[in-house]
C-alpha cells in the first residue's frame, strides 16, 4: 500500500512578485518527515504552482524550483520518496506554445536545483501538469498534440534516471485527462507515464453519490469505471467508448486553490 503525506503547508503570497504565490512549509520539515516515516509513510508530496497570466516572474520560477528541491532533499534524507509536483496552472487565454515555453523554464529550474541539492533522481517521482493551452484559450489542442508537446518537453528536460511520471489533471475534464494520457502512451518512452488524478477521478463519482446512502454502490461503480479507464490509458489501450456526459464536463475553476 502506498502511504504518503502532503508536506507543503499551503500557498501564500510571494512578496516582490507579480501577485504570485509560493508554498510554505520548509521550516521544521526534517522533523515532520522523520516522524511520518516512523509512522509508516514512505512517500511525500509537495505541490507548488506557477501562473502564466501573472508572468511568470523569474522570482516565482526560482522559488518553485528551490522549494521543491529543498523539500525533496529533506524527504530523501528521512527515507521518503518525494513526489515532486510543479504545476503550471490552466488559468489564462494563452496557447499551447506559451505553456510549453513556461513549462520548459520551470522544469529546467526544478532540475537545476534538484542537482544543486544532491537529490537522487532515481529516488523521486515527478507529478507535473500536461502541456495544454490555457483553459480560456480559443486555440484548443487534440490529445495527439498535447501528447506531442508534453513528451517533447519530457525528453528535453527530464533525466531518464527519473523512474516515473505521474501527471496531474489540473482542471481538465475526466475525458480530456484520460484521452491525453492515452495519447502519451501510444509509443515507447524512457519513463513509466501514469496518472495521479484527484478531480479527474472523483468528480463524476461525487456527483453520483451526492451524499446519499442509496447512491453509494452506484458511486463506487462509477469510480471503478474511471479508474479502469485511466488504467487502460497508461497502457495506451483506452478507446473513450461509452463515456458519460458528466465525464466530458470541464472542471476548470479560475483561481482554484486547495
From TrEMBL:
Transmembrane segments: none annotated. Pathway: Carbohydrate degradation; glycolysis; D-glyceraldehyde 3-phosphate and glycerone phosphate from D-glucose: step 4/4. It is an enzyme of class 4 (lyase). It holds the Pfam family Glycolytic. Its EC number is 4.1.2.13. Keywords: Glycolysis, Lyase, Schiff base, Signal. Residues 1-17 form the signal peptide. The keyword Ion transport does not apply. It catalyses: beta-D-fructose 1,6-bisphosphate = D-glyceraldehyde 3-phosphate + dihydroxyacetone phosphate. The keyword Signal applies. It comes from the Eukaryota. Coiled coil: none annotated. InterPro entries: Aldolase_I_AS (IPR029768), Aldolase_TIM (IPR013785), FBA_I (IPR000741). Belongs to the class I fructose-bisphosphate aldolase family. This is Fructose-bisphosphate aldolase. It comes from Brassica cretica (Mustard).
